Amino acid sequence: MSFISRISPRINNGSQFLTDEQIRHFAPSVFAETAHESRSQKFAYIPTMDVLAGLRREGFEVTRVSQGRSRIPGKAEFTKHMIRLRRADDTGVRVLGMTFAEVVLRNAHDGTSAYKLDAGLMRLVCLNGMVAPAGARGSLSIPHKGDVVGRVIDGTFTVIDDSMRAIGQAEEWQQIQLSHDESRALANAAHTVRFADSEGVVETPIQADQLLRARRREDASSDLWTTFNRIQENALRGGLSAMGRDANNALRRTTTREINGIDANVRLNQALFALAEEMARLKA
């Protein structure tokens, strides 16, 4: 996933099902009527809306959408988009703070992405929109050829099962209490995942303990599920500040930005979920 797109600021909050008009407002590239002109005749154009129509017939509805930007003139209407869907009859897992099993669908009409499916969880109390690894497979990738609509629908049912299993994990994590040192160990690992460069070097003045700060009263618990949620939200949402030094050794305040790249968002989400899984295994 070499193309890192930037999510449009026109992003909805995921608390209700979206109409086609709303989807078009947030992610017009979903409605691209052809493939981008850069694609050859070998590229099979499969409209995202055809896939959504098939998923809606199977009882899935769109809860959240975003799309990438492009610096290439005329390409923005074909760029990568991400769509979150869940079953229309899903009332949420209330014990986890209204958490829903979702499917995360990614696609592009400019050749930067096949159809990709990931298991997702949406916690409405904070709209985290976490993405869980889809079993041992990672992302389920479906190239632009053949019966794409049918394979995406089949894959969606497979991935939603993974999402339900992730909810089962989350319920187990809620029963696992972490000590102060265990919480810090999880935060330290997440800190490296979030801030290390390609060689594993971390230079940010942001401290690992800042990832543990609760943004709301109900997230102050020390169980693994709640601790993971704090870390996940702080790592992705940005807004963490610390004093550091610039290249001239002058004091400078650093504030983290929200992770807006579609693929970067998925990768970080999956990595953090994997860290929490490992902590659960260690505690077991």
Structural account:
The relative contact order is 0.14. The two termini are 34 Å apart. A hairpin with a 7-residue loop joins β3 and β4. The longest helix is centred in the middle third of the chain and has 26 residues. The protein has 284 residues and is an alpha+beta fold. Strands 1, 2, 3, 4, 5 and 6 form a 6-stranded antiparallel beta sheet that branches. It contains 6 helices and 8 strands. It folds into 2 domains: 147 residues, no CATH class; 104 residues, no CATH class.
Average pLDDT value? 83
Tally of structural domains = 2
Number of helical stretches of at least 4 residues: 6
N-to-C SSE series? HHEEEEEEHHHEEH
Number of strands: 8
Alpha-carbon distance between the two ends = 34 Å
Structural class: alpha+beta
Biggest beta sheet summary: 6 strands, antiparallel
Proportion of helical residues: 25-40%
Contiguous low-pLDDT stretches (5 residues minimum) are 1-11
Question: Tell me, what's the shape?
Answer: globular
Subunit arrangement of the protein? single chain
- Proportion in β-strands: 15-25%
Determine Rg (CA atoms, Å): 19 Å
Question: What key attributes describe this structure?
Answer:
284 residues; alpha+beta; 2 domains; 6 helices; 33% helix; disordered N terminus
Please outline what is shown here.
The protein is built from six helices and eight strands, in the order H-H-E-E-E-E-E-E-H-H-H-E-E-H. With 284 residues, it is of the alpha+beta class.
List the helices and strands and how they pair.
Layout lengths: L19 H7 L21 H10 L2 E8 L13 E7 L11 E9 L7 E9 L6 E3 L7 E3 L5 H26 L6 H16 L28 H14 L3 E5 L5 E5 L6 H22 L1
Antiparallel strand pairs: 1-2, 2-3, 3-4, 4-5, 4-6, 7-8
